[in-house]
From TrEMBL:
This is Thioredoxin domain-containing protein. Keywords: Membrane, Transmembrane, Transmembrane helix. Residues 134-204 form the Thioredoxin domain. It holds the Pfam family Thioredoxin. The keyword Cytoplasm does not apply. It comes from Diploscapter pachys. The chain crosses the membrane at residues 12-31, 95-118. InterPro entries: Thioredoxin-like_sf (IPR036249), Thioredoxin_domain (IPR013766).
Amino acid sequence: MLFSSFLIEARQAATLYHLANVVLSIAFLIVRGIPQLCEMILVPEENGECTVTSREREILLFLAVIILVKGRKTTNWRHYVNNIFLFSKIANIFLFLRVDVIAGIVYLFLMIVVTVLVPEPAYSGPEKVTYFNNTELFDTLATDRRTTWVIQFYTTWSSECRHSSPVFSQLSEKFTLPNLKFGKLDVSRWAKEGERFRVNSHPSSRQLPTVCVFKDAKEVLRRPVVNENRRAVPFVFNEVGDLWFTLFIFKSFQEKYLLDLSSRIICSRR
């Protein structure tokens, strides 16, 4: 089981997107490490050697610190790797520009081309998620009161929504039951429905993605929580979110499980 899941994760990492971004992330070090490229693209040091300077080491050290700090708030390994790509490419821009402006411009152009032509692949793993359109979610909650629904409100342009998608899909695989189902609603496409469920889909919003649990057509849980000042309390939907959801499921269904268990014990004694 673990080996098969590892193979699935490895296949998702073995893409042209990841390969291209790895090359872009270490492009400056590659150029510095190959004398022929260094002499042709960069200006060698006074001693004629293409080595990493003390100033460049400071920039790389600062990059490592930024990656470590930002890594604490990542959703999963894909999010963490994307953070490494993003900040490494930004550092490469500064490194190339401070040595040679033309080299920096060329690198920036290549980075834009790769971003446009080789976008990040969408999650394509197994899931048990219902995708709602327009008023379908509202109508389903009104008519199917016996089912507890876990709904993720998302947008197609939000990187946080994109990175949390695998976690939500894995949760749906683990916990879907006849009376517990998972669904999604695109609030960038159905903005009025987002307003109905009090989800702010503005580009500056910190409510994305919002995960709500509806029981008997009523909202019983929401993450992130919106405080009295109408500001979203930060919440990272990652493995910790997985634990949070597991505890909620146990709390919500423990009475049902205990009743079933007690009835089985009574029946067995009879």
